[in-house]
Amino acid sequence: MKSTDKLTDFNASTGIKEKLLEYGQMKTFSEGEAILNENAYIRSIPIVLSGSVKVIRTDDEGREILLYYIRSGESCIMSFLGGLHHDTSKVKAVAEEETEILFIPVDKVSELIKQYPEWLDYIFRLYHKRFEELLDVVNAVAFKKMDERLLNFIKKKAEITGARTLYVTHEQLANELGTARVVVSRLLKQMEDEGMVKLGRNKITVL
Prior knowledge:
Blueprint: H1 14-23, E1 25-29, E2 34-36, E3 44-50, E4 53-58, E5 64-70, H2 77-84, E6 92-95, E7 99-105, H3 109-115, H4 117-143, H5 146-161, E8 165-166, H6 170-177, H7 181-193, E9 197-200, E10 203-206
Antiparallel strand pairs: 1-7, 2-6, 3-7, 4-5, 4-6, 8-10, 9-10
C-alpha cells in the first residue's frame, strides 16, 4: 500500500496528501485512550486515518457530554481553531476504537492554506458539519426526552462501529449523555421490554 492510500477518505489531490504525509506523524491509539485532554495546548491537528474518535466536554464537577464523533478522513475543528490561535483545548478527544491518526504540526496549517485552497475548503466543510452536529446536541438536550436521546445515541454508536452489538457499560452511556446511570439502566430495561434492544453483561444489541 502506498503512503497516500492511507488518506483515501480525505477528499483532496495527491499533492496535498503527499505534503500532509511529509509534515505529519502517524500514531495509533487503543480504544479508550485519550488523544487530547482539556486545557492542553494544541500543537498539532489530528486527521483520522482509520477508526473513530469521540469528542467530549466536561464541566467543573466532572460530568461529561458527548459533542460529536470524528470519523476516518475527518479532523477536529476545535483543534484547528485552538491551534491557529495558540489556545488550549476546550474539549477532550478519546479513541472510540483502535484508531490511527496523522498529526499535522500547527505551524504548517497556514502554509498549507496558502499553497492548497482545497485545504481551506476542507476546514470550512468540517466547520459546517461540526456546527450542525453541535446544534443537534443542543436541540436534543433542550427539547428531546432522555429515552429518545438514549435510543438515538445507541443507534449512532452502532452506526459508527458498524456493529449491532455495543460493548459498553450503563455508566459509560450515562457519562456521554450527561445523565445518571440509574436513569440509563431504567430506560434500557424499558427498551428491552419493548423489543428495541437486548441487554447482556456490559453489552447492548440493537434489534
